[in-house]
Design brief:
This protein has about 120 residues and is mainly beta. Helices cover about 0% and strands about 60% of the residues. It has no helices and eleven strands. Strands 2, 4, 5, 6, 9, 10 and 11 form a seven-stranded mixed β-sheet that branches. A four-stranded antiparallel β-sheet has the order 1-3-8-7, with no helix packed on it. The radius of gyration is 14 Å and the shape is elongated. The termini are far apart. About 30% of the residues are buried.
Amino acid sequence: QVQLAESGGGLVQPGGSLRLSCAASGSMFRINAMGWYRQAPGKQRELVARIIGDISTRYADSVKGRFTISRDNAKNTVYLQMNSLKPEDTAVYYCNVVYRDYGGEHDYWGQGTQVTVSS
């Protein structure tokens, strides 16, 4: 069984910064990808940033230049550094892990952490 421990959400003023963390643990041979998605009220869940393997990254256009995703393989942890936050970044942020075990490749989601950008 896989567990994802998310942390780092909260309330921040526009222009501020937050750092999200997501630590994966459990029965995994290899983590193929880790990423962050978000869902605002009344909207569909969308990709924020994703890291595939060790270095290949993908970002939503709306966060390019402001957010940085990184990964610590030794800790099975993915980070999302969010700078210059805007009110439209307000959402529940979900960690996602794609991993492989004896049963094949699996897709797993965290419980979500709230990020609110408001003055």
